[in-house]
Amino acid sequence: MTKKTVRAAYTDVSGRGLYDPNNLTRTQVVQPQPKKRVPPEQTHAENYYYRKQMEAKTPMVVVLTDGEV
To answer: Is this structure's pTM higher than 0.85?
Structure first.
């Protein structure tokens, strides 16, 4: 038994011309990609976790930036 291979159909690009930015209509104008947003410094997951632990009255240790417990 032989397996039939499936290949994607190639599109005909012979009718396309070269890219000419001066020949674009109003609907074909290429829009620049928006810049990626910087992720937030603190996520809501941290706040949710802290609140969940406080409501459950789970013992926690808080370490300050100077190392004091």
So the answer is: no
